[in-house]
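Figure caption, in words: inputs first, then the predicted bound structure.
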Amino acid sequence: MRRGRYSKTQIPDCRHSNGTSCIRQRTLTSFAGLFLMLLFLAGSLRVAAAQGPVFMSEPPDDAARSGPVASPDDPKTPRRHFRITDPARLSDEAAVEAYTRVKGRMAAGYALSRHPGTEAYQSWMRVNQTPYRSAAHGQRYLNNYVNDKARAYRLFEDAGKLPVGAVIAKDSFTVRSDGSTVPGALYLMEKMPDGFNHASGNWRYTMIMPDGSVFGTTRGVGERQVQFCVSCHLAVESQDHLFFVPKEYRQAGTAHKP
Ligand code: HEC
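Bound structure (heme C present):
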């Protein structure tokens, strides 16, 4: 029925043909309106709750997939890494101990990708003393290894441009507050010949998941997925796109046998 506006004087006299008073009818209408409004509100709250985690809290743990977070506007183009929900804060010794436990499992997983570098990277020179955490790579514990061609990397800011064939491998793992250790992704930068990709300074960025699947690689499978690596590293274009290991974790010159 039509919701009318009645003046106080009209209401008492108003009667429908079936005898119901307009006052009763109007009260019923108001209840129905209120009910519909509540339904609508409950609906909106449910939608907000469903969207909430995307914008308001961290995504779920990354035990199996430590890839980057999809951006809300384009789920195919990640902007940053998954963060871990309950990371443990370890002493350097505990981080070394945790890494010793998990590194074999990590190497075996990455090698399944058959991507160059994954089979041997743990025998290369390691340029950090102990695994360190970095916000830029999702608060995981990280290690940086360099192959022979990338040895100049250990000179850090004095490294200059690294030659074609230089490979830097950064592995990662997570330690949860319950002490469990979980392999994370392997991040690779490989210097390719001139003309490979100007925007990345001819670096090929590759991200390999702990199960050996390739999440993305510049000029190859899932290229868009690693575009965010290129963009962030562009900030240090003047030093060959390299950020270098935080100073307090750098390893003095000699090769470190893991
Ligand atoms: C938000 C910025 C940011 C993003 C995104 C990012 N990185 Fe990095 N990357 C850094 C910083 C800062 C460092 C140095 C500190 C560290 O080790 O985390 C670094 C270091 C590295 C290194 C060691 C060489 C160097 O620059 O010293 C490699 C290899 C690497 N990143 C690979 C990748 C790959 C592959 C991706 C994409 C899957 C990626 N990075 C995404 C900021 C970023």
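The pocket of heme C is lined by residues 134, 136-137, 142, 144, 168, 170, 187-189, 205, 207, 226, 228-229, 232-233, 242-245 (CB under 6 Å).
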